[in-house]
Amino acid sequence: MDSNKKLGLIGRNISYSFSKKFFEDKFQKLMLKGFSYDIFDLGEMEEVESLFTTPELLGFNVTIPYKEKIIDYLDELSEEAQVIGAVNCVFIQNGKKTGYNTDAYGFEKTLLLHKKPHHTSALILGNGGAAKAVKYVLDKNGISSETVSRNSILNFDNLDAEAVQKHKLIIQTTPVGTFPNVEDCLKFPFEGLSQEHLIIDLIYNPNYTQFIINASEKGAKTVNGFYMLEQQAEKAWEIWNFQKK
């Protein structure tokens, strides 16, 4: 591998990012001298154009709110990213920019670790880039799902306990409750939850969102987004370093 490889994360208001520490620890552990990982906080998507002119840029991760918008700036998409319609990892080789979705990989690892045979239908809370990756994985694993968002037919105003009882798997994909707004919680009929429910909240900071706390009080099994985050980062590392030349 050549020296001075630049990696990073693009998003907006992302000073709290897990990725920087994760990759810097990895460089240290693997004793890689010529790698750096930076935070590129972009006010607007267009600003990525100047980032692309950075010499030695090997690739970057993409987070909220650019997972869908980044697609217009890329030359190619992996099969998964194409189907999902969202990208969270970009690899640059000989000037060619390819988009991948490693969120799907990370979420699938989490799902398969925790799901039980009765988790046959799901509610996906939110409809952003992460929700798209979640839906892709659920479809792939034969789990039917309904999306709950502000503007969908099933929305946060008409979602009731009865609908929640029917779907034993709930995936919270919105940023509501993320640090520093840890008191915030989605409007949700927690009384519809039971011990048969599995709640996966993709947020990892804080460890226990208000959503997870409320759900666990009803006896539901709860999982946060940390393992998914770790796994999607490992997958990104693999893409950046072990691509067939």
From TrEMBL:
Pathway in which this enzyme or protein is active: Metabolic intermediate biosynthesis; chorismate biosynthesis; chorismate from D-erythrose 4-phosphate and phosphoenolpyruvate: step 4/7
The GO biological-process annotations, alphabetized, read as:
aromatic amino acid family biosynthetic process; chorismate biosynthetic process; shikimate metabolic process
Task: Return the protein name.
Answer: Shikimate dehydrogenase
Under PANTHER family, the record lists: BIFUNCTIONAL 3-DEHYDROQUINATE DEHYDRATASE_SHIKIMATE DEHYDROGENASE, CHLOROPLASTIC (PTHR21089:SF1), SHIKIMATE DEHYDROGENASE (PTHR21089)
Q: Where are the transmembrane segments?
A: none
Gene Ontology MF term list = NADP binding; shikimate 3-dehydrogenase (NADP+) activity
| Keyword Amino-acid biosynthesis among UniProt keywords | yes
Q: What is its EC number?
A: 1.1.1.25
What InterPro entries does this protein's entry cite? Aminoacid_DH-like_N_sf, NAD(P)-bd_dom_sf, Shikimate_DH-bd_N, Shikimate_DH_fam
Keywords, A to Z, come to: Amino-acid biosynthesis, Aromatic amino acid biosynthesis, Oxidoreductase
Report the domain of life of the source organism: Bacteria
Among SUPFAM superfamilies, the record links this protein to: Aminoacid dehydrogenase-like, N-terminal domain, NAD(P)-binding Rossmann-fold domains
